[in-house]
Amino acid sequence: MSVDLNTLKTAGPTITALTRPFWDAAAEGRLKIQHCEDCGKAVFYPRPICPHCWGRRLAWKEASGRGRLKSFSEVHKPGHPGWLPAAPYVVGLVELAEGPTMLSFILPGLRPPRVDDALRLAPTDIGGRVLPAFKPVETGTEEKPE
Ligand SMILES: [Zn+2]
């Protein structure tokens, strides 16, 4: 993948009142996810009701940006033609340190991705907007826990 991702002609997100805090944070290069004020668990994707306890008191909080690659796929034939110039590229299921899993674009590392790779949030300009992509934490550059 050597294309400038920001030149891709990709479809943008459908932003609703429910998802706006996520997209506003993403535009600033940050990752915010919901946390349930009743059971304390983190929630992703954005929802009006906690999937763990059905509580309705969900608050937006900044995520650590740390995660683990749970699974991934190398995409050779994108579902939307706007992504073709970037193919092949990797999308992965990222298990966030807070618990929830999110689907995300995985930036290339020094070697091909492997399940269980440590990942770090890497806000990336893609198709004219900043998206919360992830990149591998390379061996030897592991960050110490905060
Ligand atoms: Zn809850």
From TrEMBL:
Segments crossing the lipid bilayer: none
Domain ChsH2 rubredoxin-like zinc ribbon: 23-58
ChsH2 C-terminal OB-fold domain ranges (all copies): 60-107
Origin: domain of life: Bacteria
InterPro entries on file: ChsH2_C (IPR002878), ChsH2_Znr (IPR022002), NA-bd_OB-fold (IPR012340), Thioester_dehydratase-like (IPR052513)
Protein name in the entry: Zinc ribbon domain-containing protein
Lineage per the UniProt record: Bacteria, Pseudomonadati, Pseudomonadota, Alphaproteobacteria, Hyphomicrobiales
